[in-house]
Predict the 3D structure of the following.
Amino acid sequence: MPKQSRNSTKHSGVFFVELDSGDQTFFIRYKKDRKLIEERAGRKSQGWTAAKANRLRTERLAGKSESNVEKRAREKVRKESVENRWTFQKIFDEYLASRPDLKGRANDVRRFKSYLGKIFAHKTPEEVTHFDINKLKQGLHKKKLKPATIRHALEILNRTANFAAKRGLCAGISFVVEMPRVNNIKTEDLTPEELSRLIKVLDEEQDIQASNMLRMALYTGMRRGELFSLKWSDVNFRRKTITIRDPKGGLDVTIPLNKMAEEVLKEHPDTASEFVFPGEGGQLRKKTPRSLNRIKLKAQLPEDFRMLHGLRHVYASHLASSGKVDLYTLQKLLTHKSPLMTQRYAHLRNEALMDASNVISEIIKPETKITELDELKIGKGES
């Protein structure tokens, strides 16, 4: 500010500058920590006077208020602090960027935004308290969400915090987050009548992509994500195999291409995409076809039946109850990493064995005499 434009007032350290518009701008000048500070107070048109500027100068000298320079410095530090804070939102964005091929990416983003964002987006993992976790659980419970959904949300929270800790971005959550108990033993199945209705509806369905996707789930037990990512290059018609890339269990696995699945794929329309069931623009599918709900209603299936996941269970249940497939083989067909996952079908296998064992009751009846049994053995030829 040019010195010649200064006009002194009766207050020490207070002066003003005449503007071309006729207005006046008041300034104050004082020393603090041996530094000479000069700052703008305000214009006369804004209600500033020499006396008001002098009161501001007195406050500055007494340390009751910050100078403009101090305010700017503090704001700069605050912004830098915010930028350097690893909040859950910032960590989650970094996590997604590091995992471009993350399975269930769309679901994770939706769950973070819908369930976690309000409470945790601007918190760092080390700032999370038990109260925050309980608040989240209670809020989701009030929305009548299932324990499995609440667990999924908490798993995303844990996964995000662990990612930050492993990368050395910041400390993780300081306590173990207690997960709600979830009953994963539920095994969905269809009655013979329901299955018959479904197959009939599939035969009549106009959406070939949707109907064939359901058939593949029923005939192979493949998971939703595995069907979405299935490429034609993964199908070997000569060797009659399907390669599942990066399944839920980890490493790539190969399952048999049985006759029914082979027929479906050979008659499946060619969309010029590398994917068997492509999404928009021939790219990787992100969502299930809308027609699945229509098919479900038309086939009069149970309301809580999940079409793709449910048909995987139907596939497994039928194999287990046939009595022809042992649990080890079933585990391999379902690409379960652990045999514990396949144990849910053990009771069906046991029922099949019991039915086979009970065949003896058709041969040996209570009224059958020992002599009659002997004659039966002689007549058939005892081996």
About this structure: The longest strand covers residues 24-32.
